[in-house]
Specification:
- By secondary structure, the chain is of the alpha/beta class.
- It is built from 14 helices and 13 strands.
- The strands form 4 sheets. Strands 5-10-1-11-12-4-13 form a 7-stranded mixed beta sheet, with helices on both faces.
- β6 and β7 form a beta hairpin.
- α7 runs parallel beside α11 and α9 runs antiparallel to α10.
- The two termini are 36 Å apart.
């Protein structure tokens, strides 16, 4: 392949920002790496589950999600999943405490993890060379302000890392500087001038100078970026209301915009990771005691209320299953988006070298307990975990999973969180 100098390429700020991971190829710096995941995504949805509608059927290595179950939309991704049942938050119950312990493992300033959440701990170890050490995307997480019930990420004990709930603001933060200062870029965005058009000349020149494989990856990457931008700058039909539109200035707090905001945030998250802007990102869908009403599914009661329907309320539980299936569809969308993007730093797709952790803050939502809290980990063959399995534990502390995630990310430690509750790795992942 034809090589061009790093200095020559980076002279064009716009192109280097949009395709910075390709610098490894352009500089001839691609090397075999140890088997550690290169990126981490934490995906959160609220209010626990009802296990009999959540759990798979089958064995460890031959399982499926039954028809009509909460996770049925994930059947197309079975080979990329680790479904973990039976993990407990030790000495923790209820919404607020579950939310606070979910990613921190109850750690304090004296803990090896320093009281940080797992995303922030990993970011502190692998994120220093990135433009953003971590990125936090949210969907209506701040309607009730910042508190233990609305925040999952911590940079220190009691110190929240708040997500950005507005896709437009997230887009501006990521790409606003491409055309110069943010005010200039903002005016250009309102006039729907493409961020890619600003650097089109550089990118076309680059595509002529790299080898065929790198050119293919670059073109695929740039097309995905353009689609991300298109979704933010052109009208989007609201679910259930084809005649309505949600332009870029849509109200991110409006209940009906929850699906559109979520999709925009996932697209931005995947683009940021693919561009090499960060290696650690999270998407928080609302917060515990979530008040959203899934009107786009024909549901008329808030998600939190539905999550407390008892076994005798068949209609209410059916509505909850409908909502949880929608969340599973969003997780499937995220996985497919990662599968469809080339890994600009090496072989395969973005999912092949990424760990994606779907976390919840409760086990059985009706019991307000944190026992058998559902976790799903997704990824590919360039990570240490062996996917395509259903793992059943019996009251194992979830700190072991958090510790294993850190090891998989190349940030090993003996215990994540409170060492009095747990020590060591979670068996069966590798």
């Amino acid at each position: 392949m034809i090589r061009i100098g790093r200095r020559q390429f980076t002279a064009g700020l716009g192109a280097s920002l949009l395709a910075s991971p390709l610098l490894r190829f352009l500089g001839g710096e691609a090397h075999a790496a140890p088997l550690t995941a290169k990126r981490l995504i934490v995906f959160f949805t609220p209010n626990g589950t009802v296990h009999r509608y959540w759990r798979p059927s089958g064995t460890e290595t031959s399982f499926t999600f039954p028809a009509g179950s909460m996770l049925e939309p994930l059947n197309e991704h079975l080979a990329n999943l680790l479904v973990c049942e039976g993990l407990n938050f030790v000495d923790v119950d209820n919404h607020d405490a579950g939310m606070a312990n979910m990613l921190t493992g109850g750690g304090s300033a004296q803990s090896t993890s320093g009281g940080m959440s797992v995303d922030q701990y990993v970011a502190s170890k692998i994120g220093e060379g990135s433009r953003f050490r971590s990125l936090e995307f949210g969907v209506q997480t701040s309607l009730w302000g910042a508190s233990r019930s609305t925040r999952m990420s911590y940079s220190a004990p009691g110190v929240f890392v708040s997500p950005e709930d507005n896709p437009r603001s997230a887009f501006q933060r990521l790409f606003g500087a491409l055309g110069g200062d943010t005010s200039t870029a903002d005016k250009q965005l309102r006039r729907r001038k493409s961020m890619l058009d600003l650097v089109r000349g550089e990118l076309n020149d680059l595509s002529q100078r790299v080898g065929a494989e790198e050119k293919r990856k670059l073109e695929q990457h740039l097309e995905a970026l353009r689609q991300t931008e298109k979704g933010l700058t052109e009208p989007v039909a609201l679910p259930g209301c084809p005649s309505a539109t949600a332009p870029i200035s849509m109200d991110a707090k409006a209940n009906a915009n929850f699906p559109a905001v979520g999709k925009a945030q996932m697209d931005l998250l995947v683009s940021a990771l693919t561009c090499g802007m960060t290696r650690v990102a999270s998407l928080q869908m609302s917060h515990t005691v979530a008040p959203q009403v899934f009107t786009w599914l024909g549901v008329g009661e808030a998600h939190h209320e539905l999550s407390h329907k008892d076994d005798s309320n068949d209609a209410g539980l059916a509505e909850l299953v409908k909502c949880e299936r929608w969340f599973a569809q969003q997780f499937a969308y995220l996985l497919q988006a990662l599968k469809s993007r080339p890994n600009l730093e090496g072989e395969g797709t973005m999912l092949d070298s990424t760990l994606v952790v779907w976390a919840k803050e409760l086990g059985d939502s009706r019991m307000h307990d944190c026992r058998s809290v559902p976790f799903i980990v997704a990824g590919g063959g360039q990570t240490p975990f062996r996917f395509g399995r259903y793992l059943r534990y019996s009251g194992v502390p979830h700190q072991k999973l958090l510790t294993s995630v850190c090891h998989a990310m190349g940030a090993p430690l003996d215990t994540f969180g409170d060492a009095n509750r747990s020590n060591g790795l979670l068996d069966g992942l590798v």
